[in-house]
Amino acid sequence: MCPICCDLFVCVQIGSACGHSFCGNCGWDWIAKTMPAPTCPYCRTPLNRQAPMIPNFAIESMVQKLVASLAENGVDGWDEEGELWREWQERQQRWKAGAAARASELERYSEAETPPAPASPPQARHEQLLINPSNEPAG
Ligand SMILES: [Zn+2]
Ligand SMILES: [Zn+2]
Questions:
Q1: How far is CA 32 from CA 36, 47, 93, 136, in A?
Q2: Fewer Cβ in 10 A, N or C end of the chain?
Q3: 77 C-alpha to ligand 2 centroid (Å)
Q4: Where in the sequence is the signal peptide annotated (predicted)?
Q5: Ligand 2 centre distance from Cα of residue 96 (Å)
Q6: How many angstroms does the Cα of residue 124 sit away from the middle of ligand 1?
Q7: What is the per-residue pLDDT across 60-80, written as a single tens digit (0 to 9) for each?
Q8: What is the CA radius of gyration of the chain?
Q9: pLDDT digits (tens, 9 = 90+) for 18-60
């Protein structure tokens, strides 16, 4: 269960690096608001700016199996085209559809963080290239 929406995980992600798990959508909704200093939506621990969350494959495969077995057993709402099953699929689609937007958002902030390259005069660069041109080991 996701601690944010209190529902079954959808495309579960893990906070990097506090270790909490939440739906991709639940996590991103919060993280996008806290950029460029992302925090965990659950414990508010600062997260990695370039990769605030990463897929939790272990739990994801458990969830996939659970949903499949709910559908197989015809659990109310979880049979194929059932209301809960449909909602879960829709949330999955929403997560996948947002991939490009999330990537560009993260890229925007990672670029902002990179310090501009120091402008070195052309002459200095030329001298550097001349150091040890034969690549012989020293001594
Ligand atoms: Zn959630
Ligand atoms: Zn956390």
A1: 8, 12, 19, 52
A2: C
A3: 31
A4: 1-19
A5: 23
A6: 55
A7: 999 999 999 999 999 999 998
A8: 23
A9: 999 999 999 999 999 999 999 999 999 999 999 999 999 999 9
pLDDT of residue 118: 72
Residue 43 lies in a domain: yes
Contacts of 27 (CB under 8 A, 6+ apart): 4, 13, 15, 41, 52, 53
- The number of domains in the chain is 1
Q: How far apart are CA 25 and CA 73, in angstroms?
A: 27
Residue 47, in any domain of the structure? yes
From CA 52, how far away is CA 27, in angstroms rounded?
A: 9
Strand order in the sheet with 53-55: 21-23, 12-15, 53-55
Residues whose beta carbons lie less than 5 angstroms from ion ligand 2: 15, 18, 20, 40, 42-43, 45
48 CA from centroid of ligand 1 (Å)? 20
Q: What residue numbers bound the domain in which 71 lies?
A: 12-59+66-113
How many Å lie between the centroid of ligand 1 and the Cα of residue 32? 15
Q: CB of 10 within 8 A of CB of 24?
A: yes
126 CB burial (10 A radius; 0-12, 13-18, 19+): exposed
